[in-house]
Amino acid sequence: MNQACWIPLLLGGALLGGCSTLDVPRADNYPVSSQKKARSVHHWDVLADDVAKRVADKIRSYPMALPPVYLVQAPSGSFNQSFRELLLTRLVNHGAIVSRQPGPLVLRFETQLIEHGSEVGNSNPLPLVTLSAGVSVTRDLYNYAHSTTSYVGSALGLAALADLGRLAADGPAAGGPTRSEVLITTSLEREDTFLARTADVYYIERDDTRLYLPVPDLPPVTPPAAPPTRNWKVVGQ
């Protein structure tokens, strides 16, 4: 049988196998949704501007006049420190009165890093190297079958379909979804009461996760002990 005919048979077998009755609930996907990916400080600024606008609008809509808001000091870390500065600037830009000293009205934010262990999407058995949208090259075909013209044509056709499917599933953002995400929550609080809350989730690249981790505090440096001294009594001759 021609190797090019194997592929339809395998696909047909997979479809027939999928029709068998299972004794456990089938795993269904959620409806299609989208999620942004944070890839630069500019993206942090966009988030800070959105949060600041929501907080400022909430303060203005409150029935009673609220005191100036104090932005709580952020934990250590690249994102935390930068986001606080950006959020402070955007709060002022949106007309919020921000206090330099702690008071009854505070705004605090928290960063939670989530790293999933499972992979994203379905793995492809052929090593595909994407050249452009919908165009792929199958490397080392001799590991899978002889490089006949019909097989190569079929394999490249499947590669193109796989790329198009991956583009449709992952979205046009560079790199697609990742298994690393960050949850950023902000709370507008007055004494023991929450006046407003925001929660935002972003994809991040795995190599960028260190930016969202707190930097451990270094132990205080102990000054070296002073060398021992000895006093000499001068006796007149």
- Low-confidence parts: 122-147
- Helix amount, in percent? 25-40%
Strand residues, percent? 15-25%
Spell the H/E element sequence: HHEHEEEHEE
What name goes with the CATH superfamily of the domain at 41-115 and 180-203?
A: ABC-type transport auxiliary lipoprotein component
Give the CATH level 1 class of the domain at 41-115 and 180-203. Alpha Beta
Shape: flat
The major β-sheet equals:
4 strands, mixed
How many helices?
A: 4
What is the number of beta strands? 6
Strand line-up of the largest beta sheet: 1-2-5-6
Mean pLDDT rating: 75
Whole-angstrom Rg: 30 Å
Q: Termini separation (Å)? A: 120 Å
CATH topology of the domain at 41-115 and 180-203: Rossmann fold
> What structural class should be given to the helix and strand makeup?
alpha+beta
Structural commentary:
The chain is α+β, with helices and mostly antiparallel strands and 237 residues long. A 4-stranded mixed beta sheet has the order 1-2-5-6. Strands 3-4 form a two-stranded antiparallel sheet. The protein is flat, with a radius of gyration of 30 Å. The protein contains 4 helices and 6 strands. The termini are far apart. Among the domains are: 99 residues, Rossmann fold; 54 residues, no CATH class. Helix 2 packs across helix 3. This is DUF3313 domain-containing protein.
Looking at this protein, list some descriptive labels:
single chain, 4 helices, flat, 19% strand, four-stranded mixed β-sheet, alpha+beta, 237 residues, two-stranded antiparallel sheet, Rossmann fold
SSE topology sketch:
Layout: H1 6-18, H2 41-61, E1 69-71, H3 78-93, E2 105-115, E3 128-132, E4 135-138, H4 149-170, E5 180-190, E6 193-203
Parallel strand pairs: 1-2
Antiparallel strand pairs: 2-5, 3-4, 5-6
Helix pairs in contact: 2-3
